[in-house]
Design a protein that fits this description.
By secondary structure, this protein is an alpha/beta fold. Helix content is 36%, strand content 23%. It folds into two domains: 216 residues, Aldehyde Dehydrogenase, Chain A, domain 1, CATH 3.40.605; 192 residues, Aldehyde Dehydrogenase, Chain A, domain 2 (3-Layer(aba) Sandwich). The chain starts with 21 loop residues before the first strand and ends in a 13-residue tail after the last helix.
Length: 536
C-alpha cells in the first residue's frame, strides 16, 4: 500500500463531486441573515490534490470570524425571543411548535445534496456515510416530533391528589447554547438543537471548528421556519464568541459535545453556575473484552467496524481491546485478514472505508502514540499499519499495549487499535474500573454465566454494556450517556425532550370556585398550558 499515491489529480475527481471555493459571509441573528465584512477563517479540506508530483491541501472556503459584540447581539436576540417565558415561541402550543419544526424539516430535505457534498469535503466522511448521517438526522427530527406528541398526550389530563387539582407539563428553560462535534457535525448537533427548539427554548448555535460550511445551506431554512431570535448562529474562535456569551450569564443551558477540557472552560465562564444546566457528551475510551469462548467471526466483524468506522473518529468507537491469550493468534490472524479487505481512498469512491482525517496534525499525533508504544515494547502487527501521508493514516494494530504506554490511557480518536491479552478477567475489569471514562464496553463470548458475572459490575461503571456487538449510540430511542468524565445528562429521542425542560405544575384546591375557573379556561382554550388538547 503506497499511501502517497492515494490522493487524486483534479481530473480524477468525478464531476458530480467537484466543489467550488465557498465564501460564506452569512450568519443568522434575530431572524435576519446578515453578511460579514470582517475577518474570515480559512477552511482546509482533509483532501489533498496531486499536482505535478506534489500534494497540496485544498482550500475549501472561508467563514466569518465574528466578534464578541456580535456574539452578545446573538444572545440578546435569543433572550428577547424567550422574553422570560413570555415570548411567542415559548408560549405557543406544542402543536404549533411541531408545525414549525415540520416546516423546517421539509426545507432541510431540499438541501440534502448540498449538505452531503460538504460533509464529504469538509470532514472526509464517505459519500455513503454522509448520506446516512443526513437521513438519520431527518429521521431523528421525525422521531422527536412523535416523542413530543406522546409526552404531551400523557400530560393532557388533570390529576387530583389530597384535595388538590393539578396539571403537570414540561416547560422550557430559556436560552440554550448548542455546540456540536466535528465527527457528526450535523447529526449530533441537531440531536441537541432540535429537542431544545421544539420544547420552546431559544437557541444560539455554534458549529464545530471543523464542519462549519455544511450548515450554510440550512440558514435560510432556519430563518423562514422559526420566529425571529429563536435560532441564532455564531462563528469564530471560542474565546471571541463563546466566552462573552457565557460571561453574560444569559445562557440557561449548555449543550456541548466535545472534550472535557473545553467543556470545563466554557462552564467556568458562567457567573451563575447553579443556574446553568449542562448537557455534555465528552471523551470515552471504550474497551472490548474478548473472552476465551468468543464467536470470533462475530467478534472480529464487530470490532473492525467498532474501531474503524469513520476512521475511528467516534466517541463510541472501541479504543482498547482485551483478548484472552489462548485465542489471540487466531484473533490476530482474522483481524489482519479483515484489515486487508478495507478500501482506502477518497470519500466519493464507492465502498471506501478509510479516508483522510480532518484534524490538522492528526496523522502525526497518531504516529507519536504508536512510536511511544513501540519504544516500550509494542509492535505494529498489520502490514502497512501506521503509514501516513498528508491527512491519510492507514490503520495500525499495536500489540502488546500496557499501562506504561500512552495508547493504554488516552483517547486516540483515530484508526489506531491498541490490543492487550489477558488470562485473568480481573485485568480488563480493573481497566474499566480504573479508567476516568465510563461510556460503554463490549463483551464477546458464549458462556451466559461468565457474561452475567461481567454485566453486573460493569453496568455500575459504564452507561451501556454491549454483548457480542460494538459500542454505539443507536438506536436513538435508547438512552445515550456516560459515567465519570464521559458525559453529563442523558440524550435519546425522549430523554432529550426532558433534559431541555422542567416539570411545571399548576395547582388549585379542589373547590367549586377553582373547578369553575379551570373548566372555563380549558373549555374556551384560554391557556396553552392548562389544556386537555390531545395531539394525534
Amino acid at each position: 500500500m503506497d499511501v502517497k499515491s492515494i490522493y487524486p489529480g483534479l481530473s480524477e475527481i468525478p464531476q458530480e463531486y467537484k466543489i467550488d471555493f465557498i465564501n460564506q459571509t452569512e450568519f443568522l441573528i434575530n431572524g435576519e441573515i446578515r453578511h460579514w465584512s470582517g475577518n474570515f477563517q480559512k477552511v482546509l479540506s482533509p483532501i489533498y490534490l496531486e499536482t505535478a508530483g506534489e500534494t497540496k491541501q485544498i482550500e475549501l472556503g472561508e467563514y466569518p470570524k465574528l466578534t464578541a459584540q456580535v456574539a452578545l447581539e446573538a444572545v440578546d436576540a435569543a433572550q428577547r425571543a424567550f422574553d422570560n417565558g413570555r415570548g411567542i415561541w415559548p408560549t405557543m402550543t406544542v402543536r404549533q411548535r411541531i408545525k414549525h419544526v415540520e416546516e423546517f424539516t421539509l426545507r432541510m430535505q431540499e438541501k440534502k445534496a448540498d449538505v452531503v457534498k460538504l460533509l464529504m469535503w469538509e470532514i472526509g466522511k464517505s459519500f455513503k456515510d454522509s448520506v446516512k448521517e443526513f437521513d438519520r438526522t431527518v429521521q431523528y427530527i421525525k422521531d422527536t416530533i412523535e416523542a413530543l406528541k406522546d409526552l404531551d398526550r400523557k400530560s393532557s389530563r388533570f390529576e387530583m391528589e389530597e384535595g388538590v387539582i393539578g396539571q403537570i407539563r414540561r416547560s422550557p428553560l430559556g436560552v440554550v447554547l448548542c455546540m456540536g462535534p466535528f465527527n457528526y457535525p450535523l447529526n449530533e448537533t441537531y440531536a441537541t438543537l432540535i429537542p431544545a427548539l421544539i420544547t420552546g427554548n431559544a437557541v444560539i448555535f455554534k458549529p464545530p471548528k471543523l464542519g462549519v460550511l455544511l450548515h450554510r445551506p440550512l440558514l435560510e431554512a432556519f430563518q423562514k421556519s422559526f420566529p425571529a431570535g429563536v435560532v441564532n448562529t455564531i462563528y469564530g474562535d471560542g474565546e471571541d464568541v463563546v466566552q462573552p456569551i457565557m460571561k453574560s450569564g444569559k445562557v440557561n443551558v449548555l449543550a456541548f459535545i466535545g472534550s472535557s477540557r473545553v467543556a470545563d472552560i466554557i462552564k467556568q465562564a458562567h457567573p451563575y453556575p447553579h443556574r446553568l444546566r449542562s448537557v455534555l457528551g465528552l471523551e470515552a475510551k471504550n474497551s472490548a473484552i474478548v473472552l476465551q469462548d468468543a464467536p470470533l467471526d462475530i467478534a472480529v466483524s464487530e470490532i473492525v467496524t467498532g474501531t474503524l468506522s469513520f476512521n475511528g473518529q467516534r466517541c463510541t468507537a472501541l479504543k482498547m481491546l482485551f483478548v484472552h491469550d489462548s485465542i489471540f493468534p487466531e484473533f490476530m490472524d482474522l483481524i489482519s485478514q479483515s484489515l486487508k479487505k478495507l478500501k482506502t481512498g477518497m470519500p466519493w469512491e464507492e465502498g471506501v472505508d478509510i479516508t483522510p482525517l480532518p484534524e490538522e496534525g492528526k496523522a502525526e499525533y497518531l504516529d507519536s502514540l504508536v512510536q511511544d508504544a513501540v519504544s516500550k515494547g509494542g509492535r505494529v502487527m498489520n502490514e502497512h499499519g501506521g503509514k501516513f501521508h498528508g491527512n491519510l493514516y492507514y490503520p495500525a494494530v499495536v500489540y502488546p499495549v500496557n499501562s506504561s504506554m500512552k495508547l493504554y490511557h488516552v483517547e486516540q480518536f483515530g484508526p489506531v487499535i491498541p490490543v492487550a491479552t489477558f488470562r485473568d478477567i480481573s485485568e480488563p475489569l480493573n481497566y474499566v474500573i480504573e479508567s476516568t471514562y465510563g461510556q460503554q464496553v463490549s463483551i464477546f463470548g458464549r458462556d451466559s454465566g461468565k457474561i452475567a458475572k461481567l454485566v453486573d459490575p460493569l453496568v455500575n461503571q459504564v452507561a451501556r454494556v454491549n454483548i457480542n456487538c460494538q459500542c454505539q449510540r443507536g438506536p436513538d430511542k435508547f438512552p445515550f450517556t456516560g459515567r465519570k468524565d464521559s458525559a453529563e445528562g442523558t440524550l435519546s429521542v425522549s430523554d432529550a425532550l426532558r433534559v431541555f425542560t422542567i416539570r411545571s405544575l399548576v395547582a388549585a384546591k379542589d373547590n367549586s370556585i377553582n373547578k369553575d375557573i379551570i373548566t372555563e379556561i380549558v373549555r374556551e382554550n384560554k391557556s396553552n398550558f392548562l389544556s386537555t388538547d390531545f395531539i394525534f
